[in-house]
Design a protein that fits this description.
The structure is a homodimer of 144-residue chains.
Chain A: H1 6-19, H2 27-34, H3 38-50, E1 54-57, E2 63-66, H4 75-82, H5 100-125, H6 129-141
Helix pairs in contact in A: 1-3, 1-4, 1-6, 2-3, 4-5
Chain A binds a DNA duplex (30 and 30 nucleotides) through residues 1-6, 24, 26-28, 36-37, 39-40, 42-43, 45-46, 56-64, 91-92.
Amino acid sequence: MSGNSRFAVSVHMLAYLAYRQGAAVPSAEIASSVDTNPVVIRRLLSALVKARLVAARKGAAGGFSLSAPPEGISLLGIYRAVEPKPDHGLRHFSPNQKCPVGAKIETILGGVLAKAHASMEAELARVSLADVHRQLHAVCTGRR
Amino acid sequence: MSGNSRFAVSVHMLAYLAYRQGAAVPSAEIASSVDTNPVVIRRLLSALVKARLVAARKGAAGGFSLSAPPEGISLLGIYRAVEPKPDHGLRHFSPNQKCPVGAKIETILGGVLAKAHASMEAELARVSLADVHRQLHAVCTGRR
DNA sequence: CTTAATGTAACCACAAGAGTTACGCTTAGG
DNA sequence: CCTAAGCGTAACTCTTGTGGTTACATTAAG
């Protein structure tokens, strides 16, 4: 099931780091906000560190912090960092090449799915972590 | 895992029905083109019949055929018929409501993901089964 | 040197999907 | 009327992906 929560948890984590304003936040604290195990948090953050979105400090008083201002981090960057290459549901799809339809449907479908996926990514690119942070504050402070 | 091939196989099946030009095609024949089990085909077609995209004829000499011309069937219609409601990866996502971030991130993320998904669906709506059929023929007949 | 933290590996549990077998029901064609 | 073909669906297994958990080596602050 391409239905994993890796992206959702990742955005939550980075929003929390933005919320803590550059402090070195240990995985246990993030885990408390997400309500899961610290190892799950560290696993995902490991991918985000590799993508240079997050800085990690080892040792006592260590933890994680954003490696760029929230304005410079788009949700697309997060998505690409933690989501494996999209299968587009073509995993178990290897049609009969002897059939004129089966021989070419894969290529045709691939083109359509690539466009659809690109359109979704463009939407994610439009939102930055700063936008999320702003909405978070609007809820906390702004009451009608 | 949201990575299933239901949509890909469904488009393949309907493209095959368009290719067979309204004949009553048995599931075994479609299964041969997709290279899978006839029951898998019938399971998916069952959803497409419920969505009124396909007509099923029982009994001997029975089979499946399109219930509308290919121009009237969009890939979005197929997608909606066979793909369950999108979880957007929020299945295992129930953050700590006592945390100011966890309390509201779910709503914020839901809005962003809804927009991204709508954008993807709009792209699928732009393509009809007739377009797929046309590309299929372009490959079969058109050689440089 | 102690303590707190990251970075992984290893394992279990669970859910979803695909494939398969089986069987009842329906219908065309003789 | 009877038979063969084919749909509709349930039940089962197998595989895979994901999350959760424990464990442990490594690192760094104080």
